[in-house]
Write a structure and sequence with these properties.
This protein has helices spanning 23-42, 45-51, 56-62, 66-84, 92-105, 107-119, 121-124, 130-147, 157-168, 170-173, 175-184, 189-203. It has 208 residues and is mostly helical. It folds into 2 domains: 20-72, Homeodomain-like (Arc Repressor Mutant, subunit A, Orthogonal Bundle), CATH 1.10.10.60; 85-203, Tetracycline Repressor, domain 2 (Orthogonal Bundle), CATH 1.10.357.10. GO terms for molecular function: DNA binding. Residues 1-24 are annotated as: Disordered.
Length: 208
Amino acid sequence: MPRSVSSDQTSGTTAKGGSADSTRERIVAAAKEEFARHGIAGARVDRIAKQARTSKERVYAYFRSKEALYAHVAERELTALVEATQMDPADLPGYAGILFDHFTARPDHYRLITWGRLELAESATNPTGPLHATIAGKLDQLRDAQCVGLLDPAWDPVDVLALINQIATTWVGQPEIGAAADQAAPSSVATRRAALVAAVERLFPRVS
């Protein structure tokens, strides 16, 4: 357990050595939890400040609004998602498995992104945002794969990416189905992962 500190005091260092765990970082960490649990409209800056061991005034000193704080948190989470889920167009079933693993381990990440889609629809379609750039890059990868024969050119790359993302997030996006299924016949995470990877394999077979 980290030692307690005053609201504006630093505590500890990062694993990369030397960088203090600042008030700003505590605010971001608390905000990530708050937004994942309550969404943007339901999040409360006073709760974020309390969790971060600081004041509302300090939160607003770093971030001009609750929406600006969410945008910062979401951008960091999307960057982490991109880094953790690199796509190999020759192994789209494997890519689906990577997405499944990421969101199974971090359902809060999925909720955080989903709240933004629901509450900030205009931001989700922003052509200059980081999410748009990530999607555009993956579509380019898929088009290149079609050009060299790794992927059936009959598919629209947009459909390919949308289908894989939807299949990979089936369980994290529909926990009520998982809960109902487990009451009848419990299944393991590994079994569910294997099922969705097999589904993507039928649509977009691996290229050996």
